[in-house]
Design goal:
By secondary structure, the protein is α/β, with parallel strands linked by helices. It contains eleven helices and seven strands.
C-alpha cells in the first residue's frame, strides 16, 4: 500500500472474480490505489467491528462518500459536470421514484455507465444478500438495516451522454424511461444486488431486442403452425369403421 494512501480501501463479494470486475474499483485502479478483496461471508461481520488498522481507517468502496484524493482541477471539473447533468439526474430520480434516495454524477466509475452505492451505516449489497438468505431472519431488522441506495452515473460514458440528449429533447419519451429502468436494473446486478422484479427486467430487454431487430412492438406474436383439426364428418366415418371392426 502506498504511504500516502488515506486509508485501507476494501470491497466484499462472493468471489475474487466478482470483486475484480466490480464497477466500484474502476476509479481506484485508474489512480493506482490498492484495494483489499474480501470474499468470505464472515468478512462482512468482521468489518462491522474493525474500524482501523495501524492508524489507517478501513473504507468500504461500495458505500457513499468515498474520497479518492481528487485534485483541485478534478474537483472543479466534477462540479461543472454536476451542473450539466443536473436535469438528467432529476429525470432519473423522478422515473425511479423511491427505488433510489438520490441520483448524482460520480468519478469513481470509469468504464461503467452507472453503479449503486449504499449509505455509510447501512448494509452493503453483499451483506444484504447474506441476510436475505437467512432462514430465521428478522424482517423488522432487515427493513431497518437495508440502506437506501444512491445511483451514481458516469458523465463521461457515451450511454449517459446520449441519454442526456434524449431526456433533454423529450423527458416523457417511453424509450427514455425504458433506458433509465434498464440502466438502474443493470446497475443493481453489477453492484451486487438482486432484482425485485426479474420479469419486468426481461420484458424491457425483450423490447430493446425488438427495437434492435426493427420489430414493431404492436405486432402480434405468431404461433407455430398447428395441424388442422379433423372434421366431425371424418371423425364419424372413423367411428363407423371402428364399429364394423367390432
Amino acid at each position: 500500500m502506498k504511504p500516502d494512501q488515506k486509508g485501507i480501501y476494501y470491497i466484499t463479494g462472493e468471489s475474487r472474480k466478482a470483486v475484480e470486475n466490480s464497477p466500484f474499483i474502476e476509479g481506484l485502479k485508474k489512480k493506482g490505489i490498492e484495494v483489499l478483496f474480501m470474499t468470505e461471508p464472515i468478512d462482512e461481520y468482521a468489518m462491522q467491528q474493525l474500524k482501523e488498522y495501524d492508524s489507517k481507517k478501513f473504507i468500504s468502496i461500495t458505500k457513499g462518500g468515498v474520497d479518492l484524493g481528487e485534485t483541485e482541477e478534478e474537483k472543479k471539473a466534477a462540479e461543472e459536470e454536476k451542473k450539466s447533468f443536473e436535469n438528467l439526474c432529476n429525470i432519473i430520480k423522478e422515473t425511479l421514484g423511491d427505488k433510489v434516495e438520490k441520483v448524482v454524477t460520480s468519478s469513481r466509475i470509469v468504464s461503467s455507465p452507472a453503479c449503486l452505492v449504499t449509505g455509510e451505516y447501512g448494509w452493503s449489497a453483499y451483506m444484504e444478500r447474506i441476510m436475505k438468505a437467512q432462514a430465521l431472519r428478522d424482517n423488522s431488522t432487515t427493513s431497518y438495516m437495508v440502506s437506501k441506495k444512491t445511483l451514481e452515473i458516469n458523465p463521461k460514458h457515451p450511454i449517459v451522454k446520449e441519454l442526456k440528449k434524449k431526456a433533454d429533447a423529450d423527458k416523457s419519451d417511453k424509450t427514455v424511461k425504458d433506458l433509465i429502468w434498464l440502466l438502474f436494473e443493470t446497475s443493481l446486478l453489477t453492484s451486487g444486488f438482486t432484482l425485485d422484479e426479474p420479469a419486468s427486467f426481461a420484458n424491457r430487454i425483450h423490447r430493446m431486442i425488438k427495437l434492435g431487430l426493427s420489430i414493431d412492438d404492436d405486432e402480434d406474436v405468431v404461433d407455430e403452425d398447428l395441424p388442422p383439426l379433423e372434421s366431425s364428418a371424418t371423425t364419424t366415418d372413423e367411428g363407423s369403421k371402428m364399429e364394423e371392426v367390432d
